[in-house]
Amino acid sequence: MRPDSIDEARPARDVDAMSGEHAGSEKPAAAIPMTVTAKPTFWNALKAALGSWWGTGPTVSRKQSSDELAEDRTDMAGTRTLMAADRTLMAWVRTSLSLNSFGFTIYKVLQGLSEAGISLRHGQSPLEVGLFLTGLGTVAMVMGTIEYAQTLRDLHIYMEIKLRRPAFIMALLMSVFGLFLFFNIVARLF
Q1: Domains contained in the chain, number
Q2: Which of 29, 59, 100, 116 has an alpha carbon 20 to 30 Å from 35's alpha carbon atom?
Q3: Is residue 97 situated within a structural domain?
Q4: Handedness of CA 19, 22, 26, 28 (dihedral sign)
Q5: Contacts from 158-167 at CB under 8 Å and sequence distance 24+?
Q6: Residue from 148, 128, 150, 136 nearest 96 by CA
Q7: Structural domain for 142, as ranges
């Protein structure tokens, strides 16, 4: 006599849902092999790949002590402070870029008007305005970069921080760009 389903072929076992142990058995649930094989699909492979890359995140299976909770919260506070410092530095970068590009544009427009024969009240005004705005943008970028470096130094006490952060690299590039633009306009004065 053949069983009609797979479940009838296996003997029934009562399992306590809370403990995972079999009723009337001395063996723990982990000792009884249970294999579940899923049909390999694209979605299962994608989930596995993302799970191994992304990770499962923090899991707490036991009650944490107050010291462990404080350490976790300090780590999270340090991460939030680091992200706030990144956002602040990017605001400095945006401000500096705006001042530099506006100063350079004003310089080129006023220089074009001057070359077209339109007399300006002060002959050096295109250079002065462009120099002032690009200088202001460069100073803003350098100040923002210094502030960011000081914040990283202070945060280094609480957590390991690498200097190869995208915001810091962008700030350094913008500082070099601003200095180049500023000295290019200064060179035209002489």
Answers
A1: 1
A2: 59
A3: yes
A4: negative
A5: 158/74, 158/75, 158/78, 159/75, 159/78, 159/79, 159/82, 161/82, 165/86, 166/86, 167/85, 167/86, 167/89, 167/90, 167/93
A6: 136
A7: 71-189
